[in-house]
Amino acid sequence: MKQQIKIYKVKNNPNNPRLIKDKKFKELVKSITELPEMLELRPIIVDEEFMVLGGNMRFKAAKEAGLKDIWVDVAVGWSEEKKKEFVIKDNVTYGEWDWTMLANEWDSTELTDWSLDVWQNQDDMTNKVNKGNENDEWVGMPDFESKDESIKLIITFQDIATRDKWVKEQEMKLSKATGNTWTTSMPYQERNDLSSLSYE
Questions:
Q1: Mind spelling out the 3-state secondary structure of the chain?
Q2: How many other CB atoms are there within 10 angstroms of residue 61's CB atom?
Q3: Same domain membership, residue 118 and residue 60
Q4: Nearest CA to 141 among 197, 101, 83, 190?
Q5: Are 45 and 13 in contact (CB under 8 A)?
Q6: 117-159: per-residue pLDDT in tens?
Q7: 119 and 173 share a domain?
Q8: How confident is the model at residue 193 (pLDDT cuts 50, 70, 90)?
Q9: What is the pLDDT of residues 46-67, one digit of tens each?
Q10: Are residues 118 and 146 in the same domain?
Q11: pLDDT average, residue stretch 25-30
Q12: 138 C-beta neighbours (distance < 10 Å), count
């Protein structure tokens, strides 16, 4: 029986075995804050005493997000054994992601914002940065203004061995790594202080 009730009436389940790490919890709070309607479509499952059987983490995140009311679905007439079974089965993840479909049909930065841990597509990240006037944020911050007229060339290698072979042939030295992106300059120059770095 689905209904909306005051959140203070709902009780945490002390025997819930599911944990959520700080970063993931913050992401869940953010999701609920941005899209509270999801809780009506995926209500918290409670027993007749309003103790949580399913959705313990969503319930905690809803409280953290400051919601006053919450949608619940009451499991009526369940035995204690059935409640315990449900608590475990509700937390079992079935199925897998279709990674090819995600890569081709979805924006990786949006998926990350929505709390799905995925690869970072460089084009998606560039598109996100380039929305609007990206220079506005950096006005008045000379440490991040470009110090030269250098041209950036991005080369994508099939694997690390191919990259290392190319670097050796070109007699280059890699100066900085950010994730899978390695930076160098031609001719190579040491950059030891932050003020010499340009914003790219």
A1: CEEEEEHHHCECCCCCCCCCCHHHHHHHHHHHHHCCCHHHHCCEEECCCCEEEECHHHHHHHHHCCCCEEEEEECCCCCHHHHHHHHHHHCCCCCCCCHHHHHHHCCHHHHHHCCCCCCCCHHHHHHHHCCCCCCHHHCCCHHHCCCCCCCCCCCCCCCHHHHHHHHHHCCCCCCEEECCEEECCCCCCCCCCHHHCCCC
A2: 23
A3: no
A4: 197
A5: no
A6: 666 655 555 555 555 555 555 545 555 555 555 566 677 777 7
A7: no
A8: very low
A9: 999 999 999 888 999 999 999 9
A10: no
A11: 88
A12: 12
Q: Which two tokens stand for residue 58?
A: 């969503």
The residue type of 122 is Q
Residue 33 and residue 78 in contact, taking contact as beta carbons nearer than 8 Å: no
Q: Which residue would you say has higher pLDDT here, 62 or 87? A: 62
- Structural tokens at position 73: 């679905």
Is residue 44 within 8 Å of 12, Cβ to Cβ? no
Q: Residue type at 48?
A: E
Structure tokens given for 183:
């930076």
Asked whether residue 136 is domain-assigned, the answer is no
In the predicted model, is pLDDT for residue 189 greater than 60?
no
Name the residue type at position 90.
D
Q: Are residues 149 and 197 in the same domain?
A: yes
Tokens linked to 153 = 């060339």
**Measured distance CA(79)–CA(86) in Å, rounded:** 11
